[in-house]
Amino acid sequence: MINFRGLPTAFWRAAKFPQIWYRLGLGPVVGWLILLLTTTGRKSGLPRVTPLQYEEMDGMFYVASARGQQADWFRNIVANPHVEVQVKASRLRGLAEPITEPALIADFLELRLRRHPRMIGALLRGEGLPARPNRAELEQFAVKIALVAIRPCENGL
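Request: output the structure for the sequence above.
Response:
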């Protein structure tokens, strides 16, 4: 039997960071839920990597932030919409477009609830909503969220 409590702290830190999982070649393992978004820092001009949960639909990637438009990665996209995405075993360039319409954000939340009912239901309960909110509750909650659609560029990486 493995003594998980005896594992070094560094192991547990590594297990929590998707960037490290991707560096270890485990993108296909975590990539079903998490992608790595690289933006250009709006002040520094340096690349900034952020792990985000995503949904893929019609060849586009959708990412959201519970921190709303105050999230650094979102503010970087507003300043420069050219991004890189690493998802599963693929890396690609894309053009990111912020979505601010509450109805469209509510559509995204409904999609996430259909695809991941337990996980998203738990997140919504943590925000004070029922696990199965109605459309009006989703639209009211949507004003707090920042949503971005990423359209992959044809030239890739």
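The first helix runs from residue 9 to 16.
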